[in-house]
Amino acid sequence: MFNIQEELKKLPQKSGVYIMKDKELNIIYVGKAINLRNRVRSYFRESNPDVKTRKLASVISEFEYIVTDSELEALVLENNLIKKHRPKYNIRLKDNKTYPYLKVTTNENFPRIYLTRKIYKDKAKYYGPYDSAYAIRETIDVIRSIWPIRQCDKNFPKDIRKSRPCLNHHIGRCLAPCNCLINEEDYGKMVDEILLFLNGKYDNIIARMDKEMAQLAEDMMFEKAAVLRDKISSIKKIRERQKADALNNAEQDVVAFAHGETESLFYVFFIRAGKITGSEHFMADKTEDSTKEEIMTAFIKQFYNDTSFIPKEIITETEINDKELISKYLSGIKNHNVTIKTPQKGEKHHLVELAHKNAQMTLTQFGDKIKREKEKTGDALLEIKETLSISFDISRLEAYDISNTSGVFNVASMVVFENGKPKRSDYRKFKIKTVAGPDDYASMEEVIKRRFTRYLTETQNGGDGGKFNVLPGIVLIDGGKGQVSAALAALEYVGISVPVCGMVKDDNHRTRGLFYNGEEFIMPRASEGFKLITRIQDEVHRFAIEYHRKLRGKEMIKSVLDEIKGIGKLRRQALLKEFGSVEVIKNLTTDELLKANGMNRLSAQAVYDHFHEIQDEAGTGIG
After folding, report:
1. Is residue 96 part of a domain?
2. Quick check: is 382 in a domain?
3. How many independent structural domains does the chain possess?
4. Helix (H, G, I), strand (E, B) or coil at 479
5. Are strands 428-431 and 421-422 parallel, antiparallel or unpaired?
6. Within this chain, do residues 544 and 578 fall inside the same structural domain, yes or no?
7. So what's the pLDDT on residue 621?
8. Nearest Cα to 320, choosing from 343, 300, 350, 304?
9. Is 385 within a domain?
C-alpha cells in the first residue's frame, strides 16, 4: 500500500521529474522541479491557494520521481514524458501539424529545389516555414522561370549519360547536367545566385546580371542580352514588392493566445528575413485552471520541442516561467542563441497585439465549431462505452482489417483514432508472412501477435521513439466472432490484456453493430457512436485495400516482364526506368527498346514478340 505521507519524507532535495498517478495507476500529471522534496510536498498542503493544484492533489494515489543531474535535463525529460503519456492534467498542444519548407539540396552534386515538410541534418539549405504549400510552389515557379535549375531526382554522378536530356532542357528550363552539358562549377554559380535570391540579396544578383548584359550587348549577342534584361526586370519587381513587407532583418516568431472555456487558441506570426512569411493557429486544452504564464510556458515548451525550425527570437504576449532555462534548452537544439522576449512597447509590442487580436477573432470564428466537434466526439465515445457497458478509457482506438485476393497478397491494415479523430501518423501496414491462402482468422492472429510483441519489445527497452509503444483503450476488428476470437488468442499468447471488439457488417456490407464479450450490440444508426464506428470501419478497410492494390500492381508489372525469356532483373529495371510502365513498353518497336540500358537486338526482339503474341491471342493484335 502506497503511503503518501511516508513517501513524501523520502523525497530527495535534488532536481528531477515527478510523475503523479490516480487510483488506477494511470499517469495524470508530469512536472519538473529544482528541488523534488519542496515541489512535490507543496501539492499536499491544505493551504495551497492554487485551484488546479488542489484539484490534482485530490485524485493522486501514488507518485514516483526521477532524479536528474540538472534542471535542464529535467526539462528535457519532462517534455518527453508528457509527449509519451499525454497526462490528463497537463496542458496539451492538440495540433500535430507539419509545416512546408523550401529545400535547396546543396548536399548534392547538382542541387535541386523543392517543397518538403521535414528538416534533416543533411547539409542542405532550408527556408521557411511558409504559411502554405502554395506560397512555396509560387516561389519555386519564380526561381525556375529565372534560373534553369534541374527538376529531376536523378542521382549524380551515377545517372550521368544514362538517358537523353528531358523536355525541360529543350524548352530552356534545365541545363542538362545529366548529359554533361554544364559542369559542376558553372552550375554551382547559378545555385549561389538562387541562395542570394532566397536570402533577399537582390542587389547583388542585379549588379552581376547588369554587368553580364552589358557585355553581351557589346558582343552583339542581343537575344541573350534580352533574356537577361527580362530576368533583371522580374527580380526588381519581386524586390520592390517585398520591400513593402520588410520590417527589419529579423528571424522571429510572435506568439499570443486567447482564452476559451476550457481551451486556449494560440496565434503565431512567422517572420523570416524581416518579412512576415505566414501565420498559424493552434489549440491547447486543459487550460481553464492555469495562469497566463503557465499556459504560455506549456505552449513554448511543447511547440518548440517538436517543431523542425526554431527562430533566433521568440516574442511572447506574456512572460513565461523558467525563461532562461527554456532559452538555454532551445539554444542547445538550434546550436546558437535563442532569446525569448515580452515587449511592453514599440514595434514588437504592436506585433504581439496584432497576434492577440487574430487569436481572439480566430477563437470566435472557430470556437463554436470546435466546441460542437468536441461534444460530438465526447458523445460518440460515451455512447460506445454505454452500449458495451464499459468504464475504461477508450480515447485511443486501434482498428484492424485483412485484405487479399483468393489468398494471394495477404495484407493487413491498422488505423488509429484518438479522441474520435484519425491519427494518420500512427497508421501501420503489414504483409502477412506465415499464412498461405485466404485464412482471415490466422492472418488476424499473426498481425495482432506482431503488433503487441513489438509493444513489449519497445517498452521493455525503455524506448520513447518506437512505432508501437502505446496501448489502445480497445482493439476494433473488422469482423465478428471468428476474427475477435483470433485476436484474443493472439493477445493471450503475447501476454497482454486489451479488450477486443468486432465491427459487424450486414449482408449489404454496411456497418450493423458491435460484437463484444460474446454478444452482439446494435446501436441506433443516427447516434454519434454508430457514425464513429462506421467511419473507423470504412477507414481501416480503405487503408487495407489501398495497400493490397499497390502490392498487387507491383507484382503484376513484375510478373509480366519476368515471363519474357532473356529479360532478367537488371534489364527489367532498365526498361521500367527508361520507359516508365509496361503500357509504354508493349507499344514500342525493337529499335526504340534498344535505348534502354543493357538491351541488345536479341532481347529487344524478345520483348517485342512477347507483347505482340499476347495481343494476338487476345484478339487485339496488329494485322
Report:
1. no
2. no
3. 5
4. coil
5. unpaired
6. no
7. 34
8. 300
9. no
Cell numbers for 567, please give them: 529479360
* Whether residue 547 sits in one domain with residue 401: yes
Domain of 339, CATH number, reads 3.30.420.10
Rounded to an integer, what is the distance from CA 569 to the centroid of its chain?
A: 34
Domain that includes residue 596, residue range: 563-617
Cα(329)–Cα(120) distance, rounded to whole angstroms? 20
Q: Residue 24: how many CB atoms within 10 A of its CB?
A: 9
- Most distant CA atoms of the chain, gap in Å: 97
Return the sign of the alpha-carbon dihedral for residues 573, 574, 577, 583: negative
360 and 483 in a single domain? The answer is no
Per-residue model confidence as pLDDT tens digits over 192-220: 988 888 877 778 888 888 888 888 888 88
List Cβ<8 Å contacts ≥24 apart for 501-506: 501/388, 501/474, 501/475, 501/476, 501/477, 502/476, 502/477, 502/478, 503/399, 503/476, 503/477, 503/478, 503/479, 503/533, 503/536, 503/537, 504/479, 504/480, 505/478, 505/537
Rounded Cα gap, residues 371 and 168, in angstroms: 50
Both 455 and 550 in a single domain? yes
What CATH number did the domain enclosing 79 receive? 3.40.1440.10
Which domain-ending residue is among 201, 222, 243?
243
CA atoms of 409 and 556, how far apart (whole Å): 11
Final residue of a structural domain among 534, 554, 574: 554
Cβ–Cβ < 8 Å for 17, 30: yes
Phi-psi region of 409 (alpha: psi -120 to 50; beta: other; left: phi over 0): left
Same structural domain, 426 and 528: yes
pLDDT at residue 246 is higher than 60: no
Q: How many helices (H) and strands (E) does the chain have?
A: 19, 20
Rg (alpha carbons) of the chain, rounded to whole number: 31
What is the per-residue pLDDT across 53-108, written as a single tens digit (0 to 9) for each? 888 888 998 898 888 878 887 887 888 788 778 888 888 766 555 667 889 999 89
Helix 222-243 and helix 133-146: axis angle, to 10°?
150
Please, which residues have CB within 8 angstroms of residue 143's CB and are 6 or more apart in sequence? Answer: 113, 149, 194, 197, 198
